[in-house]
User: What shape does this take?
Amino acid sequence: MKKVLIPTALDAVAKEMLEAHGGYTVLQCPKSDVAELVRANPDTHAILVRSEKITAEIIDSAPALKVIVRAGAGYNTIDIRHARQKGVDVLNTPGANSNAVAEEVIAMILADARHLVEADASCRAGRWEKSRFMGTELTGKTIGIVGLGYIGQLVAKRMSGFEVRVLGYDPFTSEEKAKTLGIELTSLPELFDQADYITLHVPENEETRGMVNRTLLKNMKTGATLVNCARAGILNEEDLRAVKEETQIHFLNDVYPKDAEGDKSVADIADLMLPHLGASTREANRKAAELAARELIDLDDKGITSAVVNRNVPAGLDPAFARLANVLTRICRRVLGVNTRLKLVETSFYGSLKPFADWLLTPVTAALSGEYDTGMDHKRTLGFLADMGVEYVNRSIDDSKAYTNSITIDLTGNVDAEHLMRASVRGTVEEGNLLVARINDFDKLYFEPEGNWVVFIYKDRPGVLGRIAAGLASAGVNIDDVRNPHDSKGHKSLAILKVNRPVNDELVKAISSEIEARIAFHIEL
Ligand code: NAD
Assistant: This one.
């Protein structure tokens, strides 16, 4: 059992998911001191945190620690470098709270534009100040979004309902991408010059610290609004103070140098201020918890490293392809036969997946051995395969051919001292869905590898599919989906059936011997 500590009030769904998955003992202690809790549990495998600090000392006090998951986007509270030195992967859950922040931005803009906070107080006090609270409308205005990542893109999407013009600044966003989002890319000065509402969605780093300065602020339209729900350091507070009166900028703020009680230095220049509430919705907390648990399971079971922030995983690797590599390898291993001694693993990564070959070997290896520690880097993974007696070849792909993004896994093994067996499975991802395209010579399958499947390969002749269906029905197993292609050259047929529940080995064996199948197995995907 792997021990997981959750020293925070993370939504209970993370604990539930890990326990339901099996293999994890979860200790959730929201109010405990993290350092003490870790010291008391030196066998901890993983820690799931929200904004709790994980220092080098905490990492050192947990010799069995392999994973830290930050249920949230920013991870500056975790000593990621020290974690790497100790072979500990740090994961985050980007995107889980994006909608919460995007909605907060819109709520703040509308609240300010219609004076909701003051009007509420005035009305409660018995006053009737309709002319004092004359508002403005969003429709027809220009919105400027600085940073077009998860949150910036969602702000654009949500804002489109107000029929606004959306300007965006992000040197890492292409024209095509911006166009599909209905965003006109501009320079930063142009954005500040033209927008009625400007909202910041960049991370705080060397490049962005103090980025919103006097020159930009002075260029803003008189009475325009600036929203900061990103990080305090992005805005030069003194510069805003200096130009605020002249420009009459409305400043709406959610972020501070420190998340703590007490007076806030921006109080005199902020027209609306909230105590860092961006991610504070039940839905975001639940989403972050679900994602944190799923990522831990995916890393442990499938070697999916795309959420890891402290390994050199290149940006742009869609995690769906890591899942695909894992699932294709699992199917291929079953087609080869679990008793066949594996000798050779060949991978082919087509299209834009080619540069990710090293990283995709992790989910492939995780599918081949439960003993594999998915924290191993590429070199150690190769060593692990070699120790298993397995040769690994990543096939070179002809660059001149315009392949779509897809993966082929080929496995070769010894059935006995004299006979070799080969199995090959190919698949792709379409609109985010995994698809298995080919098993051995059976092409154009295009099934979604999810749920329970039974697979038979047998000598092609009439009536076999009916006998398989009858065998399953006799045990009360319902068939949800079937593919039954023929290989006319090899005189073989493949029956791959999605069923409504797991099928035990006895039933698979009974059907297999009745139809004289060459290959027969059940697999849960
Ligand atoms: P993200 O990484 O998805 O997006 C950041 C975007 O900024 C990227 O598209 C990147 O290309 C762009 N960028 C980086 N440097 C830039 C620069 N110099 N100029 C212009 N664009 C630049 O991040 P996200 O999830 O969208 O989060 C954005 C910010 O929101 C982060 O600072 C995060 O800490 C903050 N945040 C705040 C809250 C809150 O509660 N208020 C909650 C979540 C996130």
